[in-house]
Amino acid sequence: MSTNGAGEGTGPGRTRSSFGLPLVVAVTGHRDLVQEEVPAIRERVRELFVDLSQRAGERNLRVMSPLAEGADRLVAEEALALGLELIVPLPMPRELYALDFKDEASAREFDRLATRAAELYELPLAAGVTQDQLHSARDARARQYAQQAAMAEDRDAWLAIAERWERLAEEEEAKTKKGD
Predict the structure, then answer these.
(1) What is the pLDDT, as a whole number, of residue 174?
(2) Count of structural domains within the chain
(3) Is the pLDDT of residue 153 over 80?
(4) CA angle in degrees (0–180, nearest 5) for 174-44-176
(5) Quick check: is 15 in a domain?
(6) Mean pLDDT score of the chain
(7) Structural domain contains residue 117
(8) CATH of the domain at 117
(9) pLDDT in tens, 47-69
(10) Sheet (strand 119-122) strand order
């Protein structure tokens, strides 16, 4: 689905025939999705990625998700299903991040997706935060999450998935009215 933009002349001193910086879409969203809405959300995310891939041209579409429960994982699953590259920036060391998962099944799901990532890295500790504080201090963990969110907002596109997609509901209502 995506191309890297490499042309025939890609060795030292050669000119590329095309130019394609990656287009990175970062995601953030609710952890507790309304289950009845998940299929529609998946469809919209899939449609968005197909559209972006077509529009990206020579640019390689990549998806950035920290793989938190809920929307982050849903988007990562859709990206991987379409053959897109997944980048996983963790807001803190992996073993400490896993403490936020609700159960062992969630931790296994995280591991399954993380093994498919093209890149996985842990963000450095925020100024004034120690690894010991991340075990118990909510404010230290909150600073790490804020740092991760700020990095996500700085990507080419930022996909925020709300628990309820009001636009989706409005569009469905408009389609229904047209059919009347």
Answers:
(1) 64
(2) 1
(3) no
(4) 15
(5) no
(6) 79
(7) yes
(8) 3.40.50.450
(9) 989 988 888 777 788 999 999 99
(10) 119-122, 85-90, 61-64, 23-29, 157-161
| 157 backbone dihedrals φ, ψ, rounded to 5° | -140, 145
> pLDDT category, 7, cuts 50, 70, 90?
very low
* 96 in any annotated domain: yes
Whole-angstrom Cα distance, residue 87 to residue 152?
11
Residues 6+ apart with CB under 8 A from 55: none
| pTM reported for the whole predicted model | 0.72
Task: Give whole-number Cα distances, 65 to 15, 58, 168, in Å.
Answer: 33, 22, 22
Q: What's the domain range around 50?
A: 23-164
Predicted pLDDT of residue 15: 54
Structure-token pair, residue 28: 């953030």
Q: What's the angle, vertex CA 69, arms to CA 129 and CA 2, rounded to 5?
A: 100
Assigned domain for 178 exists: no
58, burial (CB in 10 Å: exposed 0-12, middle 13-18, buried 19+) = middle
Which of 73, 59, 60 is CA-nearest to residue 28? Answer: 73
